[in-house]
Every structure is written in C-alpha cells, then in structure tokens.
Write a structure and sequence with these properties.
alpha+beta, 3 strands, 43% helix, 11% strand, globular, disordered N terminus
C-alpha cells in the first residue's frame, strides 16, 4: 500500500469539538485513568486514533490540546513537573 498515506486529508485540529472528544475518551476509560503521565497520554492518544481515525501525530496534538484546555488533568508537583509514578488522570466533562 505504498503512497496511500499521501492521499489522506490532514485533520484540522482546530475544527474538533474538544468537549465531544473528551466525552469519547471518558466513555472508553471512565472519569479516571490510573496510569503514569506518559502511559496515560499514550492510552488517550490511541483512543483518539480509534475514535477519529486520524494519525497518531494528530491524536497526540489533540491530547495535548485537551490537556492545555483542562479536559484531561494529571497531578503536578510543586516544581510544575509530573510525578513519575502512576496517578489518576481526570477526564472531565467540562474544562477546568
């Protein structure tokens, strides 16, 4: 299937309804996803790929956008880094 990727239309990230996307991720994992920071982002990325049929790169951008807009949250330490151990990601209905 050489060249099939080049025929694909790129997803317009700004056209995605973030509330609906967060809802799709929440339906898959519930309100809380217990994982490390990177593992949680990977799981949510894979859920977005499955839901939208987009590329992993586009899904990563969307997960970043969900996080920046407060739809998904992971604990921060006092120095604004994330714990390295597993914690609960919150997948919110409304942004914070």
């Amino acid at each position: 299937m050489t060249g099939a990727r080049s025929d694909r239309v790129q997803l317009a990230v700004e056209d995605i309804d973030l509330a609906q996307l967060a809802s799709a991720v929440r339906r898959r994992y519930g309100r809380h996803l217990y994982a490390s920071y990177l593992r949680g982002k990977t799981l949510m990325r894979d859920a977005v790929v499955a839901h939208l049929g987009c590329s992993a790169y586009e899904a990563e951008e969307l997960v970043e956008t969900l996080e920046l807009n407060g739809y998904v949250r992971f604990p921060h330490l006092d120095d604004q880094t994330h714990p390295l151990t597993r914690h609960s990601w919150v997948i919110a209905e409304e942004p914070r």
